[in-house]
Amino acid sequence: MVGSLEHLGDEELGCWLAAAELARTSSRRQIIRVLFDRMGSLSSAWQASADELAASTQLKAEIIIAFLEKRRQVDPGKIRESVRLSGLDALSYADMAYPACLKHINDPPLVLFVKGQLQEEDFHHAVGVVGTRRPTAYGQRLAKDIASGLSENGVTVVSGLAFGVDSLAHWGALSGGSRTIAVVGSGADLCYPASNRRLYEAILADNRGAVVSEYFPGTRPEKWHFPERNRIIAGLSQAVVVVEAGEFSGALITARLAFEQNREVFAVPGRVDSPLSRGTNNLIQRNMAHLTNDHKDVLDVLQWVPVDTGKPGAAVVELYGREKEIFDMLGLEPIHFDSLCESSGMSAGEMSATVTMLELAGLIESHQGDWYSRKQAGRSKVPQP
Question: CA separation (Å) from 302 to 134, 237, 239?
Answer without folding.
Answer: 29, 12, 8
